[in-house]
Sequence to fold (754 residues):
Amino acid sequence: MIPVELLLGLSTVLFFIGFFGFVTRRNLIAMLISIELVLNSVDINFAVFNRILHPGELEGFYFSLFSIGINAAETAVAIAIILNVYRRFHSDQVNSIENMKL
Amino acid sequence: MEYNFVFLILLLPALSFLVLGLAGMKMPHKVAGAIGTVVLGTIFCLSIYTAYEYFIGQGRGADGLYPHVTAFNLTWLKFSELLTFNLGFRLSPISVMMLVVITTVSLMVHIYSFGYMHGEKGFQRYYAYLSLFTMSMLGLVVATNIFQMYLFWELVGVSSYLLIGFYYPQGAAVAASKKAFIVTRFADLFFLIGILIYSFYVGTFNYDLHAMPTLHEQVAGAAVMLPVALFFMFIGGAGKSAMFPLHIWLPDAMEGPTPVSALIHAATMVVAGVFLVASLFPIFVEFAPEQLHWIAYIAAFTAFYAAAVACVQSDIKRVLAFSTISQIGFMLVALGVCLPDPHTGAVAMTEEYADVQGLGYMAGMFHLFTHAMFKACLFLGAGCIIHAVHSNEKEYMGGLRKYMPITHITFLISCLAIAGIPPFSGFFSKDEILVACYNFSPVMGAVMSGIAMMTAFYMFRLYYVIFWGKSYYETHINEGAHKPHEAPLTMTFPLIFLSIITITCGFLPFGELISANGIGFHTHINWTVAGTSVALAIIGIVAATLMYKNEETPVADKLAKTFPTLHRAAYKRFYMDEVWQYVTHRIIFRLISKPIAWFDRHVIDGTFDFLAWGSNEAGESIRPWQSGDVRHYAIWFLSGAVALTLVLLYML
Fold:
């Protein structure tokens, strides 16, 4: 069986890769992909902790599935926003919409 | 009881005020005036009917007293189980008498104003204010409790303010109205404090011992603080009734239209203080007789002071104003010289008490009644004269008896009444006052007799300089002086009506209707006192005749030249206005108000200014953190989360 540390290490690495991408990338699509990575790391955590803490039960797995479903919806909304930003500002760069602040 | 209609007495003038105040500008003058006058006529009839029903129709109750009828009483505010604030309508002998006085004078003033205010701008507004005033004054006299009285007390104050400032484009009228409002309001502060002390210790706002059987016990329980409360209430009354040194607003209040002076500043509102003391009379006599005598001393001094000033004023309305102050002094002296019964220490229920120790009560009320009639007549007469010569100053008058016969006769009747010549009404009431004063102490009696002589002198001085003496019109006819003419019928009718009352009302059996303990007694004339006072009045009149009847006035001029300082001081009202000016501006403003204003501006405002400045600065300094870049926020968010995690892991 794969040791827990390895699985949690994978999810941590995934989280920080995602976060690094979110902070460094300026392209909105790339930032969206980074967020997906962060969320995937969370899904892994759910599954791992379900397996080590409550073996035989399924809440964690179901919650992972639920989270994936929400992710899909969130991605759809985010892409719609990005498309609208592109139409409005003719750019997919995040600093192009800084002027939305007061 | 049969007094279900009395609410109309308050409601009708209130409605007329609303109608005239809101829709008056769209009405022609005549319609607005007619509405006001018809309403007043209606409540005049209702008041007369009430008085008839009260004194004759229902008559005395089984205990031989006129019942104090509470026609209605609504609870408005409930402070506690015991302390409630009611609005109601109470008929007692003095309030019924006041209803008659107020509606009579007010009706006459309404009719008179048709002529006097003819064509004035703001005619409808004027009638609206008159309605407001009448309503408030009626509410004051029928109050069932001291708080209701205070409420209407302030309302008469505000209507007086509005009417004094009626000619608001003139600076003098504005200044006078402000002065009247501030001075009376200052006095009313003491009234309010008195009410609060009274209600705190007694536990009710009710003051009528006849209407509330348990009240006597409650009042007796508060006997320690009661004199203070009553004296504070009297200060409020002194402000409205222009007692020294709070009298300064009344002469200036003559800036208002003359009929208003007749109604408010001679006949009705200024006697509110007298009415207040009379309402509280049983409590005063039993629990604060000392304070009652202080009132008498203050009032006697005021009467003397005002009479002295009235002797030298040149503006005829000012003379009448000081004469009013002096006469109100007489009324308050009459109330103040009443004594408790030597055996019981309170109001005794015997006829003898009403006739001896309590005589001043009846005398004061009687004088209030007669004075209202003849002083209103004098003021309205003065209005006719001012209307004819277009000035208040005596230099522009003189010799008017040929041009204004009706005004002349009615003015003369009123002057004789105020001087105390029989058989005019003033003789009877003033005689009773003097008898009451002699009952109190011979010194007080002698002083008041002396003031009565001064009254006769200054009133006849006024009469002679207006109607006799050198005629301004005849001496200035070549310079295009305006020919004086008699006033129209709307103005002379009230004069005639009021002078008829003045002639006849002295014969009213007043002691049978109103007395200190409610028991009727037969008034009799004390011929020693009456003879002396008539003789003194005649001396005063003769002196005035010798000094002022002829075209030249050598004696008067010589006197003024011999005592220039005294004459000037009296003309300047003994510098009382200057004293107040000094006290308010130099002492109160400089030493109290300025430091308080500084404290307010620098300490209180400063604290809040600092808080506002601090928040503003803090906001400015953290503003750049809101970069609008979502990635910055993510970094901060992560840092926060990591920091929290570390704290949770290692610190706890």
Observations:
- The radius of gyration of chain B is 30 Å.
- Chain B is about 70% helix and 5% strand.
- Strands of chain B lie at 69-78, 84-91.
